[in-house]
Structure formats: structure tokens, C-alpha cells
Write a structure and sequence with these properties.
Blueprint: E1 8-9, E2 15-17, E3 38-48, H1 51-61, E4 65-69, E5 73-77, E6 87-91, E7 96-104, H2 109-119, E8 123-127, E9 138-142, E10 148-152, E11 175-183, H3 186-195, E12 199-205, E13 211-217, E14 225-229, E15 234-241, H4 245-257, E16 264-270, E17 277-282, E18 288-293, E19 305-309, H5 325-329, E20 332-334, H6 352-356
Parallel strand pairs: 3-6, 7-10, 7-20, 11-14, 12-19, 15-18
Antiparallel strand pairs: 1-2, 2-19, 3-7, 4-5, 5-6, 8-9, 9-10, 11-15, 12-13, 13-14, 15-20, 16-17, 17-18
Bound molecules: fe (ii) ion (FE2).
């Protein structure tokens, strides 16, 4: 991990360095087995308590396309997707996440996933027929952080709806962009994800090197998933991309017109981290959904890691608007492979909310002044 003094401070106020291994006092052993070659985050399986209410939110309001549905399950996809689904909504008693699912480069990569996680001592299950419709041979594990991860290659192909402008809405969700996970010990999580083949693109640290959150990618965007420090394992959000900022504004206008503004938790705004325009929504079960657009290309091997100071008031919102407390504290439970909620463990390091919110004078808009505007407080 690069020390702050060895990073380069940019004119925009963040720091850059080259990625190194991260220091952790509680490491998960690196397996001898090679990790599976992961292409991208592909879909999330969510348990929802009222399927009709969720269908209204995700299909009628947000406009995701229905690939298939039955009495208990909805298989949804975004405009540009050609695999069967990006989101599975399954009716159940407890709102939670059943799987964070990644697509791998070839069927052979599934053997690697089995070997990698077996060596880590994880619960590993493989189903040649897949665990959900539309997906073939797949591997599900509870990973060392307690998250239900899935890997698959085979998927039914469906039509890309990009050319069906007759069906598009002003707030069209075009791609699944990323997951965001809450975990108590971010360096421990990052080290394991680096072993799994992920690259760090950005993080939030303090001067002492405490890591509050980190963004990691397989595809050439800012991330496929992020690790947010907090009580976990829990799911912070699942994110879909739009093409343009105005698509996000249209979603806000629509929710207002439907008198559903209470679905809007945070934003719209511009992130410091990722540089993306964003909006956070809460679905009928409280699952958090981000809508996001216009982050940047990260595919070169020497792509600089961006580090934000935790006291930089513009890291989470470039305009300095405050982060609402629920965004820091609320998250969805995750399930083990038998469908039971995973126990939640308390964060071990300082919490980002505790060190940056309140009449603390900690957060700044300009690094040389220990004062900001209202955005540093609630
Ligand atoms: Fe996000």
C-alpha cells in the first residue's frame, strides 16, 4: 500500500499512485490455485417480500425489461444486455441478497473457481443446470468475507433492446454497472479481491492509512464492485448505468410526478470518487439501487489508483452536498447458500460517518483550510 507521502497530489485535490498490495493485519491466505478469469459483474439475485410492488418499481417505474417471469420470480435486464438477466427478483420472507453473480471468460474457469474457493475453506456448490433460469453450469460460494458469490459462463442469449427506441423511456437503464458491498475490514477485503484478480481503481483513506472504502474492477470501468467499510457482510447497492445525465434527471422528475419522491435517498449529484453522475434510490424493500453515468476508462495496466482523503468534503459529492446518514448506516442482509441471513459483524476500524459528519470541523472543501461549507455537516 502506498504511503500518502509517496503519492502525487493532483491539481483537483486527490492523490495518485500505482497499485500495490494492501497492508492488512488480518489477511486471508492467498490460494495456490489460480483465480477464475472474471469478465464482469453480471447480475444480482435479490429476495423481495412483495413481488408485485417490486415489479412496479423495477419494471413500471425504472423500465427494466422482463425476460421471463413466473409466480415467484422476475428475470429483468437492461437495454444493452444480451445475456438472460441482470437482476433476479425472487419472492421470499426476508429481503436480502442471494447472489452477487459474475460472468467468467469460459466454461473452464468454473473449475478454477471451485479449486480457488475450496482451498479457502469456503462452502462451494456447483450446479450444472444453474441455480436460476437462463444460466447454465455455475458455481456458488460463500466467500471468506461472508458474501454469496456466483460464477457462470453459459447463459441464454436474448435480444439487445438498444435499437428498440420505440420502447425506450427518458430514464432508460442501459447496463448493469456495479455492486457495492459493506464489510467490516476493508484492507482484508481488498487483499482477497486482489487475489481474486480485481484491480483497485480508487479508495478513500486518512493520512494514517485507514481505508474507508475501495473501488475494484475487472471490466475497464471504475468498478465491478466496491468495498465500503461498515457492519457486514451486507449489500450497499446495485447500480445500473444510463447513457447521459439527463436520463437520471428524468428518473427524478418521474418519481416526483408519481408522488414517489421518498424513493430518492441521495442525489442527484456528481461523485468525486469515479467522477460519475449519480442517484440513489430505495426499492420497496429498502434495497438500494444506484443510477450512474459517465465514469471513465481504466483498462491500461498502469492505470493510476486515485486516493481521496476521508476529510475531503468533495470525495463523495463533488459539489460538497452532505451524505445522508441512512446512506452510511442502511444496507441489505446477504444470505448463505441455504437461504439463511448471514450474521452481521461490526466494523473494526473508524467509521467514515463518525469521522466526517457532525460539528467536527474535520471535513474540508479546500485542503489548506479546516473549514468547509454546510456540506461537511448535517
Ligand atoms: Fe456505486
Amino acid at each position: 500500500m502506498t504511503k500518502r507521502t509517496d503519492m502525487t497530489r493532483t491539481s483537483a485535490g486527490y492523490f495518485v499512485s500505482q497499485e500495490t498490495g494492501i497492508a492488512t493485519d488480518n489477511p486471508i491466505a492467498t490460494p495456490q490455485s489460480s483465480p477464475p478469469d472474471i469478465l464482469r459483474c453480471a447480475y444480482m439475485e435479490l429476495v423481495v417480500t412483495d413481488l408485485a410492488a417490486s415489479r412496479e418499481f423495477y419494471v413500471d417505474v425504472l423500465g427494466l425489461y422482463v425476460t421471463e417471469e413466473d409466480e415467484n420470480t422476475l428475470y429483468l435486464r437492461s437495454t444493452e444486455e444480451f445475456i438472460h438477466h441482470n437482476l433476479v427478483l425472487r419472492k421470499g420472507e426476508v429481503a436480502a441478497v442471494a447472489a452477487f453473480s459474475y460472468r467468467v471468460r469460459s466454461p473452464e474457469e468454473l473449475d478454477k473457481a471451485v479449486a480457488f474457493y475450496t482451498e479457502l475453506g469456503c462452502d462451494v456448490r456447483r450446479n450444472p443446470d444453474g441455480f436460476v433460469k437462463g444460466v447454465g453450469d455455475s458455481v456458488r460460494v460463500v466467500d471468506p468475507l461472508g458474501f454469496p458469490y456466483e460464477f457462470f459462463y453459459q447463459s441464454d442469449h436474448v435480444e439487445r433492446m438498444s435499437w428498440r427506441y420505440d420502447l425506450h423511456i427518458p430514464g432508460e437503464l442501459v447496463r448493469l454497472d456495479h455492486f457495492n458491498q459493506v464489510t467490516p475490514d476493508v484492507p482484508r477485503a481488498v487483499k482477497y479481491m486482489q487475489d481474486l484478480g480485481f484491480r483497485v481503481t480508487e479508495d478513500i483513506q486518512d493520512e494514517e492509512g485507514t481505508v474507508y472504502a475501495a473501488w475494484m474492477r475487472r471490466k475497464s470501468t471504475v468498478h465491478d464492485t466496491a468495498m465500503t467499510g461498515g457492519d457486514g457482510p451486507r449489500m450497499h447497492h446495485v447500480c445500473f448505468a444510463t447513457h447521459e445525465k439527463h436520463n437520471i434527471l428524468s428518473i427524478c422528475d418521474k418519481l416526483g410526478a408519481l408522488r414517489r419522491s421518498d424513493s430518492i435517498e441521495r442525489g442527484p449529484g456528481r461523485h468525486g470518487v469515479s467522477n460519475a453522475f449519480y442517484l440513489y434510490l430505495r426499492d420497496p424493500d429498502g434495497h438500494r439501487v444506484e443510477v450512474y453515468t459517465q465514469d471513465y476508462y481504466t483498462g491500461d495496466p498502469d492505470n493510476p489508483v486515485i486516493t481521496w482523503d476521508v476529510h475531503d468534503n468533495q470525495r463523495r459529492d463533488w459539489w460538497g452536498n452532505p451524505v445522508v446518514p441512512s446512506w452510511y448506516t442502511d444496507a441489505s442482509l446477504v444470505l448463505d447458500l441455504d437461504g439463511s441471513p448471514q450474521p452481521v459483524h461490526a466494523r473494526t476500524d473508524d467509521s467514515e460517518m463518525a469521522v466526517t459528519i457532525g460539528a467536527d470541523g474535520f471535513s474540508y472543501t479546500r485542503a489548506d483550510e479546516n473549514e468547509g461549507k454546510l456540506g461537511n455537516q448535517l
